[in-house]
Write a structure and sequence with these properties.
It is built from two helices and nine strands. It is mostly beta strands. The chain has a single domain, classed as Jelly Rolls. The strands form two sheets. Strands 8-5-4-7-2-1-9 form a seven-stranded mixed β-sheet. The chain has a two-stranded antiparallel sheet with strand order 3-6. It is globular, with a radius of gyration of 13 Å. 29% of the residues are buried. The model has no long low-confidence stretch (mean pLDDT 83).
């Protein structure tokens, strides 16, 4: 699904997220650790969001929410029950990966680098 996932683990890193940044390229993403909602204020581009539960012992995470094509400035997801993090991905990524990306399914997306504070 994605090869390059940065992490935002601090309050400021999560707050900034993708605000004011260039659009994500195919294969890029940002993981916001410890959050269950997102906003699109100051965003320049649409994104897909994959909300996940805490990792299981094997590192997999259960999908607890999926949002497609959140529009810049207008999209808000206030709260996703059971979410302990969210992967922000280029718009259209989740649709391209078909029905396997649905609530209740297990995924394993391993953040590759520290980023966003």
């Amino acid at each position: 699904m994605t090869e390059r996932v940065a992490r935002a683990e601090t309050f400021l890193g999560r707050l900034r997220g993708l605000m004011f940044r260039r659009p994500l390229e195919e294969g890029e993403g940002l993981f916001l650790a410890g959050t269950n909602g997102v906003h699109m204020l100051f965003m320049r581009f649409a994104i897909d969001c994959l909300f996940v539960a805490r990792p299981a012992a094997d590192g997999s995470q259960r999908i607890v929410g999926v949002r497609h094509q959140l529009p810049p400035w207008r999209g808000v997801v206030w709260w996703v029950r059971g979410a302990s993090g969210v992967y922000e991905l280029p718009a259209g990524t989740l649709a391209r990966h078909g029905p396997g990306v649905a609530v209740g399914e297990e995924v394993r997306l391993e953040p590759a680098s520290a980023g966003g504070g």
